[in-house]
Structure formats: C-alpha cells, structure tokens
C-alpha cells in the first residue's frame, strides 16, 4: 500500500525534511572544522617540540665545541669574559639564555584553547539538529504535533 499525500501535506513534509537536513549539515560541517583545527594545533605543537629539541641539540654541540680539548680546565671562570657579569661576578651567559628560552618554551607548552563561542555554536547546532529530528518524528506520528503546523 502506497501512501498518497496531498500537495499541502507533501509541502509540509518537505519543509520538515529540509530543515532537518540543513541543521544536520551545519552540525557536521562545524564538527569537521573543529577536527581540522584540533589537528592543526597538534601538528603545530609537534613542530614546536621538534624545533625546541633541535635548538637544545645545537646548544649542546656548541658548548662541547667551546670547551678546550687540551690543557687544564679553569673551574673558576674568572678569565673567561663569557662567564663574567656586569660586576665581574659569575653571572653565566648560558643561564641567562636558558631562562629566556625556558620562558619562550613555557608559552608554547600551553596549546591555544578553542574559542568558547565556537564550542557554544557547536552545542547550539547539535541541539538544533536534535530538535529538527524530533519534529520529523512527531510529523510521522501526526502533523498537528509539530511546530510547523498552522
């Protein structure tokens, strides 16, 4: 047995199906955008971590090259201008550079938080899609139960 709808009923169901499809499409495209953004953030974090590791390796190899290979090692460091601070003390240059690098790395450790508005929009889209799907289910029971009935 085939169901036959009048033109008005058919238009009514077309409206409900169209709204449901639109809400679902918006929701899925928003979810796709969020996944892409999350993937880009992860790739950026990995790249930052690799850059930091390379920088540390380069600093380590530079320090090894700066060490004298022969002769006694001067542990006081008084004669080496790299290790002398403004007052002639032991303000090591490597420590100053290390704290600046650590501060920069500290900023990069925290990933960008997703925009709250974007998350809220995603929740709104999910609610809208569920609402439209509910209206479609109600229309299957009886058209007068839906909010589209006039």
UniProtKB/TrEMBL annotation:
Domain of life from the UniProt record: Eukaryota
The residue ranges flagged as biased composition, category Low complexity, are: 31-66, 94-104
User: What ranges does the record give for the region Disordered, renumbered to this chain?
Assistant: 24-122
Chain intervals with Basic residues compositional bias: 107-120
Q: Write down what this protein is called.
A: Uncharacterized protein
Q: Which organism is it from?
A: Astrephomene gubernaculifera
């Amino acid at each position: 047995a085939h169901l036959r709808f009048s033109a008005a009923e058919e238009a009514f169901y077309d409206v409900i199906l169209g709204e449901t499809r639109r809400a679902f499409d918006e929701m899925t495209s928003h979810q796709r955008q969020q996944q892409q953004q999350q993937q880009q953030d992860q790739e950026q974090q990995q790249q930052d971590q690799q850059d930091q590791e390379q920088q540390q390796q380069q600093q380590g190899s530079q320090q090894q090259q700066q060490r004298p290979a022969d002769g006694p090692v001067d542990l006081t460091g008084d004669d080496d201008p790299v290790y002398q601070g403004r007052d002639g003390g032991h303000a090591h240059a490597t420590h100053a550079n290390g704290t600046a690098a650590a501060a920069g790395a500290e900023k990069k450790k925290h990933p960008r938080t997703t925009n709250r508005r974007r998350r809220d929009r995603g929740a709104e889209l999910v609610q809208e899609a569920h609402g439209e799907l509910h209206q479609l289910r109600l229309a299957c029971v009886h058209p007068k139960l839906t909010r589209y009935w006039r």
